[in-house]
Amino acid sequence: MPGLLDVILGYDCNLACDYCTITPTMRERALAPKAVVAAMRRGRSQAYDRIAFTGGEPTIRTDLVALIKAARQLGFEDIKVQSNGLLFSEANVARLVNAGVTRFHISIHTHDATAYDALVQRDGAYALMEQGLRNVVASGRHVVVDVIIKTDTYRRLPDAIEWIAARGVEEVHLWYVSLTDGNAARVESLPAMTTTMPFVRRALAIGRERGLQISSLHIPRCLLGEDWTHAWDPGSMRVLVVTPDATFELEDSRLAGRNHVPACAGCQFEAICPGVRDDYLQRFGDTEIATARGQAPTIPGVVRLPIRP
């Protein structure tokens, strides 16, 4: 069965996003080139036909082009680079395309220049990201933009979709911030899904108007309502994640929904919905899910802090 080999080359990065789950200790860990090639060979022997190079920030690796060429030689049909885009100069994009890249994913976080630089904690980063995005769009390769939903970004989400569409991007992934590892203590960064839904719905409507393919990750279908068709669970596919620390199936990741609460019983989406993430359930309990299903909540949120929209 075909699948995706998701290779986290290392945890180091040229930005310091305020919601990043990577800790300072993790930034010191990376896969050696030989280990990456060995993982790619095993992946091909197990019928994985697509590969993603991610991190951290993969473009700070001096061996990235060589690894992409190796992936192409091994027969991977689709080769993705996931990046913040800061190093996507026209020349670098050309080198990556010539090496074999078939798609680019760029995390723009948020489209507002001031908010972006504050979020990534680097002055002047926005201009580099925007130019990098323009360069990959101009390359003719498939481009996916990742946007983070967190307490200080969700209100700008509809405007972000307009901004993305204006730059010729055709696909967007909406990620919900996670309270794991380096971001575990920043509980205020995680907003309630019912608080964000009016903005998510407006963003999805704008995307449909502008011809964008938008996928929402982590929000259960019952909360998306009539927009449930935008829900996408990467863990439902065959994805093997290779990191400097471990190798595991994506469906087992802490970033995937792994909890079906009592109110999930009998839901029309029960068979295909992965459930609610651990960190979200601990923060807010199952009140929102139960309300959507017309039931009483049974799991209280553990973290009793005010929600700051």
TrEMBL record:
Protein name, UniProt field: Radical SAM domain protein
SMART domains for the chain: Elp3
InterPro entries listed in its UniProt record: Aldolase_TIM, Elp3/MiaA/NifB-like_rSAM, Radical_SAM_PqqE_MftC-like, rSAM, rSAM_sf
One Gene Ontology term of the molecular function aspect: catalytic activity
Source organism: Enhygromyxa salina
Assigned keywords, A-Z: Iron, Iron-sulfur, Metal-binding, S-adenosyl-L-methionine
UniProt KW Ligase keyword: no
Family matches, as Pfam families: Radical_SAM
Co-factor requirement: [4Fe-4S] cluster
Protein's UniProt keywords contain Metal-binding: yes
Domain Radical SAM core: 1-213
